[in-house]
Amino acid sequence: MTKPTIKLMPTGVPNLDAVLGGGFPIYSLNILAGAPGTGKTILVQQILFNTIENQPHKRALYLSTLSEPTLKVVRYMQHFQFFDAQVFGEQVIYSDIGSFLIEQPMPRLADHIVGLVNQHQAEVIVIDSFKAIADLTEKSGDFRRFCYELSVRLASARCTTFLVSESDPSQINYSAEFALADGIIYLSTHEEAGEQRRWLQVHKLRGLAPYMEPFPFVITNVGVRILSPTLTLRQKSVSWSVPAGRMVMGIPGLDQLLRGGIPYGRSIILSGVAGTGKTTFGLQFLMAGVDRGEKGLLFSFEETPSHLSQMAAGFGWDLERLIQQEMLRIVFVTQTNIRVEEHLDQIAQEIASFQPQRFVVDSISVLFYKVNNRAIQREKTFQLATLMQQIGGVGIFISGIPAHETGHLSSFGVEETIVDGMIVLSKELVGRRRDRYLEVFKMRASDHVCGSHRMAITENGIEILYSASQISPPSTTESLKFIEDAP
């Protein structure tokens, strides 16, 4: 016997339906709560317009009470892309019930609201603000009866309801409307990683299994967007496809140290103090991929595209030509504009759209420089690493080591435990000359040559300096494994 399923109303808000488990159940009563200025009205308006988009038979009703006049709501909403002047007044109907609320007794208010729903044949209704009704009700018992009657009658009218409420989290536990609601979405603002962020959290959604943790979101001219790195990982986690074999790094001498390259789906920390060649390494890795028909994506939080092009030209690499050929994409973000959650989301979106095989972040030291919490540093590094596993590519995450902390392996001391491999670049003053070194410090579940090796930056890029006789051959078992992994 087939079990009945709950029919859902998608919101069309980027990534919100993934958080909810597909959308809101139709005919449900939902509360969007939060302090003033958290984005409640924008979110509910976006849901209204998205719901009736390309559906000329649908009607939505927006009722304002005693919070923000309808005229002001319309004035501000029309600047968002979701606002459609062609359906305003015809399919999305605005009505002010503030005067009725003041002049008429509470029992008549439910009749008036249901009458408007029937008059306009609305399938979706918003009451903003619902808290204003509670504030004008003298007896809590009267308000509870009103909430119950309204929820039953609107569901009977086959209408999906959204109540907007200026509430703090403590009110969720004792206010009547929250007890009766089918869904509770709470919006808030607080600081994380040195940034003031907006957050959305599902506290309740009957009949569904939503994600219950807080999700960051932004408000742009498009409207609300739930930032999605975590959602992207979860939605794709069942369909990972990592190619067999190894990716050739293309840096002379390095693939010999790596016994043929780096296994696909791996993420690598490339660390070192200033001047050891980290950015050059990243560019050379991308150029080697282009030579093999592999697309490369570079997120630069330090060097501008023009500076990178000049640097690359010194080695004979034409970045602008490769960008025009759509074999290379460079995304530059200035340090002053970094917003960790937003740019992790942007990285996920760029990877999804460009689908590179090689990916470089230069550098995670700058990307995460506002993050002081080690647990958050680990979480964000893990998100980047898992993106590489999903697309089956190889990611190089550059990490700068402060000059006075040469005993450290990375900027924050947690990255090396998350990623699959670690390559450390260093330099040493020998007489009046500084020699450069490269060490494959870690390569999870993959044989590699240990120890530091001299390297040089030549007119062709980085080269590892050693004789072939210095590289010990792998054991028989390791040789067989290498042959199996080799492309």
Count of individual helical segments: 18
Overall strand count: 22
CATH class of the largest domain: Alpha Beta
Number of domains: 2
Derived from helix and strand composition plus strand pairing, the structural class reads alpha/beta
Largest sheet, in brief, is:
9 strands, mixed
The gross shape turns out to be elongated
Radius of gyration from CA coordinates? 29 Å
Strand order of the largest sheet: 5-4-6-7-3-8-9-10-11
- Let me know the average pLDDT: 88
Approximately how much helix is present in the residues?
25-40%
How much β-strand is present in the residues?
25-35%
- Sequence stretches where pLDDT stays below 50 over 5 or more residues: 475-487
> Under CATH, the topology of the largest domain is which?
Rossmann fold
Explain what the structure shows:
- The chain starts with 7 loop residues before the first strand and ends with a helix.
- It is elongated, with a radius of gyration of 29 Å.
- Helix 5 packs parallel to helix 7 and helix 9 packs across helix 16 (374-391).
- The longest helix has 18 residues, at 374-391.
- The protein is 34% helix and 26% strand.
- The protein has two domains: 8-226, 3-Layer(aba) Sandwich (Rossmann fold), CATH 3.40.50; 238-485, P-loop containing nucleotide triphosphate hydrolases (Rossmann fold, 3-Layer(aba) Sandwich).
- The protein is of the alpha/beta class and 487 residues long.
Would you kindly provide a brief summary of this structure?
The chain is built from 18 helices and 22 strands. With 487 residues, the protein is of the alpha/beta class. Strand 10 and strand 11 form a beta hairpin.
